[in-house]
Amino acid sequence: MAAGGRGEGTGMDDVHVTQWDGTAGRGPRAVFAHGILTWGDDERYGFAAQRPLADRYRLLLMDRRGYGRSPDIAHSDYEADADDLIRLLGDGGHLVGHAYGGVSALVAAARRPDLVRSLTLIQPGALRPAAGHPVVAAALERARKATTQLPEDYPPEEFLRASTEALGMPAPEPTPRRLRAAASSMAERPCWDAEIPLEPLAAAPWPKLLISGDWAGAPPLYKEYAGEPLIACAEFLAEAIGAGHLVVPGYYPHTQRPAEVNAALRELWGRGDGLRDGTAQGPAGGERRDFEDRP
């Protein structure tokens, strides 16, 4: 992979990667995978607010296939994403995934735990493992029904509105890049039905963290349809794989509360790096921490 420098993009087997690196290539790498309707360095839904972490780390923000500046693909797929993430990890790195990208990160980490220094999942859409929870089961039923009822010629503009305005959220400007992301989101393999082997993740020695919003202030319909299942899913996964669980105010943690999220990432990454050199310390996984709202 060619060096990308600060804010430049790099190509990796045709996948576009935004690289932010203030370490002249000497810092540990951290690989990010985004969710739907977005791309790696998007300010609205992506990881733009995590750029300050580049002072000590090499941040690699992958545009999943069909998104951002990565090439088109008929159907985006978390298994294909996992292949790309594994290649980006190189000889080892930290892994961060949000929503759909959280499922991709789970698959990659379960497949190659030897390459992972730490795993952070921000409201991952991995509903199937937590299907025993009634709220998650209801969400799965809704999602499966909605997928089968979606017409093949459904316009991306309508999908964008249905994913935002219809749930009480403001819709982003329908730019060509946003509409392309919406079209890819419609066509991709559903992440919520992914079968994920949790045993390799539970057995892995590196630190793990789930990050959720408390969903205070979210539109009621959005909280019911997305927030409550995602909270239940995060609680289940944290217990199942032995991860910490950080809860911050709001419903889009890494964009709404970047200071808390970035501080948590620094702490987790420090422990993961310490594990490699034998100086690991800090809180064990499996505990839930809540940030009180601050002015």
From TrEMBL:
Biased amino acid composition, Gly residues: 1-10
Coiled coil: none
Residue ranges, compositional bias (Basic and acidic residues): 286-295
Classification of source organism: Bacteria, Bacillati, Actinomycetota, Actinomycetes, Kitasatosporales
GO molecular function: hydrolase activity
Domain AB hydrolase-1 residue range list: 31-264
Keyword Hydrolase: yes
Keyword Signal: no
Domain of life of the organism encoding this protein: Bacteria
Region of interest: Disordered: 1-21, 272-295
Keywords: Hydrolase
Organism: Streptomyces nigrescens
Name recorded for this polypeptide: AB hydrolase-1 domain-containing protein
Annotated Gene Ontology cellular component terms: membrane
InterPro entries: AB_hydrolase_1, AB_hydrolase_fold, AB_hydrolase_sf
